[in-house]
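so my prof wants the structure for this chain in the tokens format not the other one, which i didnt know existed until like an hour ago. anyway here's the sequence
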Amino acid sequence: MSSTDYTSDTLKEIEPEATDARRVVVLISGSGSNLQALIEAQSHDRLGGEIVAVIANEADAYGLKRARDAGIDAVALPHREYDSREAYDGALIKVIERHEPDLIVLAGFMRILTPRFVQRFLGRMLNIHPSLLPAYRGLNTHAQALADGVSEHGCSVHFVTEELDGGPVVIQAALKVSTNDTIETLKEKVHAREHLIFPIAIGWFLHGRLQYSGTGATLDGTALPPQGLRLSHEDAAEELDELNDYT
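here's what i got, hopefully its the right format
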């Protein structure tokens, strides 16, 4: 384990000071499995704030139903109804600002954002990405990892900047890639780790511990390393009760 690995005990001991509820807007495109993890974290007072709206660029996104079932404002804003990316992002800005969020969370939002949008919310946007950044930016990360024969894969939470999947990394969770893994098995394992670390990073931000500095990210005033804080395969597996799945 490296000096930046997080142990399971450390994760369990984090108890940020209570603050007034801060407001979160979540952007999605599909089923919203990460959204569900955030809703569950909120229901157990582990998020540090309140999800006040969920916005989807696909009208039939299942995540909108998850939001409605949880009593959260669910907004469909189909991107195909706009003539350009700039026009859509302009409308999206208006909808987001109507909810006055402290943080915007991209939870499977499959859109490349315009510079105008990014600059409007710079330092207040977190994204979850299915790879150990800076490896495998963009799409098809699991297929690329398998094609390259890597021994380690995982996921990352990072601040959103104009560089695609290139913003400062906050926290990562790793997994060992076995010879029997497929795209689907990797996807399942990575999803479990996403659901583990995304609420943690959001909680840090909402409690004022995590900040974007312009050149990187800081946690409790200390600059994070380029890969953020790394949760090892062993510690993630322990948190997720996966240890018996590996030999």
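also thought this was worth mentioning. The CA atoms of residues 158 and 169 lie 4 Å apart.
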